[in-house]
Amino acid sequence: MSRKTYRLAFLFLTGLTACLNAVAQNYTIPAIPAETHLLDPLLGKWTYVEDLHSPQHYKPSGTWTFSRGADGFVVSDEFRTDNGSGGTAVIVETYRAYNPATKAWTFQTTIYQAPTIGQKNGEWDMGITRVQHGEIFDEITKGNTITRARFYNIKSDAFSFRLDTSMDGGKTWIKPVDIEAVRVHDNSEIGKNGQ
Fold first, then answer.
1. CA–CA dist 149, 191 (Å, integer)
2. Can you tell me the distance from the alpha carbon of 165 to that of 7, in angstroms, rounded to the nearest whole number?
3. What is the span of the domain harbouring residue 130?
4. Whether the Cβ atoms of residue 25 and residue 19 lie closer than 8 Å to each other
5. Is residue 25 part of a domain?
6. Are residues 92 and 147 in the same domain?
7. Nearest-5° Cα angle at 82, 76 to 87
8. Average pLDDT for residues 80-108, to the nearest whole number?
9. How high is the pLDDT of residue 195?
10. Is residue 76 part of a domain?
11. Taking the model in full, what pTM does it have?
């Protein structure tokens, strides 16, 4: 190989390597911003008791599990209400996704309920998640109807939750549901750490 051919080959390979590095960098997802950790206090498994503020209803209980996915850009949760006899009365799946370009959370949620509770099975709703002053809000707006979920009193081992609905664009709120949740501690860790 002549010296000129060797130099051309070297320049070609150097250019190719630089292009491949640039392409590889262009196809890397963005770094996880700090805002994706705003929902971290909810991560884990919780048990809860629900207050429907209605004397004809018992106080349902169940589990609520939050987990992180998609390399940290998604926080999903499963809300499961027991029916009191070993089955499930309500199950709700919610997926919150963080958009680094808009610096905002959006979510999609679907619900399955026993027929005596409701008929809204398998429909997806979309909304906005926002974090303000240590509280987390999920809000769905459909015309004049607003459904707002509020996570508050968030501590390492407990949180409170309230679900309200407005049929008049937020002027008045009805049908409150209050929940008190307590973190489930993994008993398998007891003894490992000498606790």
1. 38
2. 72
3. 34-185
4. no
5. yes
6. yes
7. 105
8. 93
9. 34
10. yes
11. 0.79
Asked if residue 53 and residue 24 are part of one domain, the reply reads no
Q: Is the pLDDT of residue 155 over 90?
A: yes
What DSSP line would sit under 83-120, residue for residue?
-SSSSEEEEEEEEEEEETTTTEEEEEEEEEE-TTT---
Find out whether 181 and 47 touch, Cβ atoms under 8 Å. Answer: yes
Q: Does residue 194 lie in a domain region? A: no
Q: Residues 19-61: pLDDT tens digits?
A: 555 555 677 888 888 989 999 999 999 999 988 777 666 678 9
Name the DSSP letter for residue 6. Answer: H
Say if residue 7 is in the same domain as residue 82: no
- In terms of phi and psi (left: phi > 0; alpha: psi -120 to 50; beta: otherwise), the region of 50 is beta
User: What pLDDT, on a 0 to 100 scale, did the predictor assign at position 44?
Assistant: 97
Do residues 3 and 56 share a domain?
Answer: no
> Does residue 87 sit in the same domain as residue 108?
yes
Label residue 189 by pLDDT band (50, 70, 90): very low
Residue 190 lies in a domain: no
CA separation for the pair 161, 70 (Å, rounded): 26
